[in-house]
Amino acid sequence: MRNQILAMLMFFGMIATIGSATNLSTEKKYQKTFYDTGILKAEGWQIGTVKTDYWYFYHANGQVASKGTFRRNKKEGYWFYYNEEGHLLKEGHYKHGMASGWWIFYDIATHSEKRFQYNQNQKNGYALIYKNNRLRRAEKYHNNTKIGEWTSIFSFKRDNPDVSL
User: Which regions of the chain does DSSP assign to beta strands (E)?
Assistant: First the structure.
């Protein structure tokens, strides 16, 4: 009977794709996957095969690699990424699975930090480059292409009087 109902729904275009009966599950379960070595690789919530809510991903040495939220299998909200030693590499926002808003990239070796504005996975807007906690320069991007650069706050304010960063 269930197969007949599914066939009718598919025939009338009410179900676009069906992979298997487990994909139709609405039960929320906490899932864990492991490396061949037995070390935890990922953990988080799923409904059927769709990732949802908060997830953790791990490097092969057991350190956290990234963490953040999924919504319908797409990254959403604020995410953090770490190297194998546990140092924060970058953090930022996702909207519908694409980088959006401000992202911060850390370079531990050079004591520098770069902050970029993103829209749909592309640098769009301003970038602020810091070294030793001091702002060194500002840049402006459009569709991943740098279109301006300033090394003094005075020249930046002169060229961008309406912008407050």
Answer: 28-34, 40-47, 50-58, 64-71, 74-82, 88-95, 98-107, 112-119, 122-131, 134-142, 145-150
Q: What percent of the chain has pLDDT over 90?
A: 75
* Domains identified in the chain, total number: 1
Summarize pLDDT for 120-149 with one digit per residue, the tens: 999 999 999 999 999 999 999 999 999 999
Residue bearing tokens 């990239």 = 105
Q: Please report whether residue 56 resides in a domain.
A: yes
Is residue 149 situated within a structural domain?
yes
Contacts of 153 (CB under 8 A, 6+ apart): 135
Q: What is the pTM of this model?
A: 0.80
Could you tell me if 56 and 31 are in contact, meaning their C-beta atoms sit under 8 angstroms apart?
A: no
The amino acid sitting at 36 is D
Alpha helices of the chain — where are they, by DSSP H?
Answer: 2-11, 153-159
Q: pLDDT at residue 3 above 80?
A: no
For the cut 90, the answer to whether the pLDDT of residue 74 exceeds it is yes
Which residues span the domain enclosing 41?
A: 25-159
Q: Which residues, 6 or more positions from 114, have their beta carbon under 8 angstroms from its beta carbon?
A: 104, 105, 107, 127, 128, 129, 130
